[in-house]
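User: Here's a protein and a ligand (magnesium ion). What would the complex look like?
Assistant: Let me lay out the input and then the predicted complex.
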Amino acid sequence: MYQAFLIKYGEIGVKGKNRHIFEDTLVSQTSNALKSIDGGFTVRKENGRIYAEAHEEFDFDEAVGALSRVFGIVGICPVVLAEDEGFDKLAQTVVAYVDQALPDKDVTFKVITRRARKNYPMESMEISAALGERLLEAYPQLKVDVHSPQVTLHVEIRNKINLYSQTIPGPGGMPVGTAGRAMLLLSGGIDSPVAGYMIAKRGVKIDAVYFHAPPYTSERAKQKVVDLAKIIARYAGPIRLHVINFTDIQLYIYDKCPHDQLTIVMRRYMMKLAEHFAKEEEDLGLITGESIGQVASQTMQSMAVTNEVCTMPVYRPLIGFDKQEIVDVALKIGTYETSIQPFEDCCTIFVAKHPVTKPNLKSILKSETHLGEKMDAMMREAIDTAEVIRVEA
Ligand code: ATP
Ligand code: MG
């Protein structure tokens, strides 16, 4: 029944002079998202609004699904486009539209008409009143309420006549590409995919890095991370995933450092390597899925010691989230099922029975001096042998 969507956006409307950059990015992101829908759409900006017009019949649920993954969109209004063939024909179309759009007619409504072209022979108020009357005749259960109606039927007289009454919520946020890029430390767990989603939602393009430890972590564990990146890419666009072979470094740390410090030392080297690739990609920050107190390596003290090696900002969007809150987002965005597949990750294998929860920076630095030049060489090796996978939705 629908031929187009009116795309509503919120926050990006208030960006002053930059507004057109945000709008143009939203237009191109919307257009990208709809590319996968058979038939095709033309997306355009008009009078501070964005329209996506279908070229032919399309799968409604698929199109709405695609739009609901475009950050920056706050509302998706399905629109019926009618030719202007006189008021009588319009009234018939509106009556038919309401029959389909409102299966339950025991509601209050009002009609709001806007004329974008003034050569229509009736005035807006007159059109609204006449259409309201026709609707009441057709469906006596309907009631008019001009102050707080349950349903507002919008009639816009343009080249074609636009009818819409329904707004499906969008994901909100800012269009991806309007806020720089950042490097996500992506593990196979529940948290980091959610962290990536949340930063992408603010308009940031995402790169990713995964620390792989074969044969302790399997090919299947790596595939799981690729699968997670694919799901994030549905929202964030294509992701360059850097897979780093971390086995030798982990074994070496295991060999040289006190075992209660393993995780912290290992995490410091992860951060250093992630930062190396972030600089190469011209990223402006790192992203992790950490949350205060979730595990020993995520106490305030541990994070302070881990953070000490970083020279770029580390964004931790889940920092104040409880696990259940993170799980709720993971379920909503579709990463949860993949995250809970039981493939080991490198942190769970080289883990001490009693890790420090309040590491002391001096003592960690002292342990690291035992790693010496051999560690520098291993870091170089890890950088030189990294594999880059371009992941698309
Ligand atoms: P997640 O659910 O994201 O795996 P977690 O609760 O298991 O998190 P940790 O294992 O302490 O927590 O990891 C904290 C953060 O470090 C992760 O959210 C992720 O950003 C990063 N990280 C951990 N392991 C890896 C890995 N193998 N590759 C890339 N990043 C990792
Ligand atoms: Mg993990």
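Summary: The two ends are 28 Å apart (CA to CA).
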